[in-house]
Amino acid sequence: MTSPRAYVPGEAVLVVALKRRGAIVERRGRAYRVAVGGLTITCRDDELQRVVVPARGRTPQTVVPPRRPTRTGTTDTPGGAARQTPVPGRASAPRPKGEDAVSSIDLHGFTTLEVREALLTHLDAAIRAGHAVVEVVHGIGTGKVRATVLAELQRLPVVREIRRHPTNRGVTLVFL
Description:
Blueprint: E1 12-15, E2 20-28, E3 31-36, E4 39-44, E5 48-52, E6 61-62, E7 74-76, E8 82-84, E9 98-106, H1 112-129, E10 131-137, H2 144-154, E11 161-164, E12 171-175
Parallel strand pairs: 9-10
Antiparallel strand pairs: 1-2, 1-5, 2-3, 3-4, 5-6, 7-8, 10-12, 11-12
Helix pairs in contact: 1-2
């Protein structure tokens, strides 16, 4: 069986889990760095689909690969949807997705320089996991970490809304 042609930097792709288009930034083995909105995320080649660039004035189309089993016990289906299939010897509860999915990062003890990288890395993982909300625990302190968090979040187009936690002023809620 031949493997599909590798993606090249600048090539338009669809990130299946996000259902969003992006562009390849660089290749690292079977993994790729993909620019999606204001974030650069890391994806395996089996998490991406090619986007066919049409002739001028036409709508772009996604090339749908044939069905194949993945390591997580799902089977890719045409259109990018995944169908849960049983995996022998593996019992796990399904992860919540959509409005019930919440992720959290605690930035206590981080410097303002460390906050940016940790926050972007966590948001990347939360988006890929399908989380709708991320709780960013920055603490109260001097407010420098909170200011850095807010500045970073406001520049990201993937962030739909930023709210203070209703009962804890040391936590910011981020809606993706």
